[in-house]
Amino acid sequence: MEVLVQWCGLPADDTSWEDWNALKDTYHLEDK
Predict the structure, then answer these.
(1) Which pLDDT tens digits describe the chain residue by residue (32 residues)?
(2) At 18, is the secondary structure helix, strand, or coil?
(3) Which residues on neighbouring strands pair with residue 17, listed in sequence order?
């Protein structure tokens, strides 16, 4: 599954589709 990520500190134009499994194992994610 892919999720659309808006990276903290970057403009909305830099959002990207990322693999959920890779992200959840690499980053501490917050539910917002």
Answers:
(1) 999 999 989 999 999 999 998 888 888 777 65
(2) strand
(3) 4
| Torsion over CA: 6, 10, 12, 31 (sign) | positive
**How far apart are the C-alpha atoms of 30 and 13, rounded to whole Å?**
21
Domain residue limits, the chain: 1-32
Model pLDDT, residue 25: 83
The tokens describing 12, both together, are 């909305």
Q: What are phi and psi of 23, to 5 degrees?
A: -70, -45
